Amino acid sequence: MKFTLTQLRYVVAVARYGSVTMAAQALNVSQPSISVAIDHVEDALGHKIFVRQRGSGVALTSFGRGAVAKALQVLGEADELAALGSREADVGGELVLGCFEDLAPYFAPALMRAFAERCPAVTVVIRDESFETLGRRLADSAVDLGLTYDLGLPGHFKRVLLHELRPHALLPAGHVLADKWSVSLAELASYPLITTDQPHSWQHMLDLFLSRGLAPLARTTTSSFELQRSMVANGFGVAVSYTRPFGDKSYDGLPLVCKPISDPLPMQRIILTHDTRRRLSKAALAFIETAKTWFASHDVFKA
After folding, report:
1. Which of 17, 129, 290, 295 is positioned for an S-S bond with 22, CB 3.0–4.6 A?
2. pTM: predicted TM-score of the whole model, two decimal places
3. Are residues 141 and 1 in the same domain?
4. Which domain holds residue 156?
5. Environment class of residue 254 by beta-carbon count within 10 Å: exposed (0-12), middle (13-18) or buried (19+)?
6. What CA–CA distance (Å, rounded) separates 33 from 26?
7. For residue 88, what pLDDT band results from cuts at 50, 70 and 90?
């Protein structure tokens, strides 16, 4: 070949991190070494892989997306070849898992631990992502698998179902609805609704009300799920959520009341997803099986 596997690894690292500087830090090599490798591979292929963006790292070109996908395939097969001589041909290499930021704290560490027991030779990198960035990172091969809700994903992404959740109402302690066994969307619509500012998330929540011919009294957005919970706990409104941590208290220690919603609403799916235009590595396939086993054997959130 006109370039080495090491040079390909440098190119893939830059694609994953979106920055020569961050890739150099992750690989513990000099920035010039990575820049030289990129130039060499681009010259050998006769096309630009990256577009340099002043002050914001690099972005893949349309050619670069295909080149990085093929590089990942070549590197994965090289790792598999190297593993043939090891004990039981252990799965190795690197796996980048992109997690929707609301789900990451609740599942990513436990899944990493379970996967490490099954495939100790694989290095797992976790990335917090929004709905928008996760789809883009998967398409650009910067992320191998995505752990997320089934919202806002392209049709050509494969979805592996891990679990389904029912929505519930979040109320401050002492709220007039807090003593009811369940609450309806019509009852919640009489109070200010607090949502997160993730476009697919808040639109989905509003659509739940609209499907019943309702419109919330008002809507306030927050930048994160935990801030949403704290706003509710402090009496600024109510919320509808699928995610329910173990412990009904906000970050500032105030109690929250969680109630089932009496309306017949659709379940929300927790999934692993990937771009079907990219070949999955053995590490990614093993992670999918690990995740399916883990979710099948654990209670997810409280009932």
Report:
1. 17
2. 0.79
3. no
4. 90-164+268-303
5. middle
6. 13
7. very low
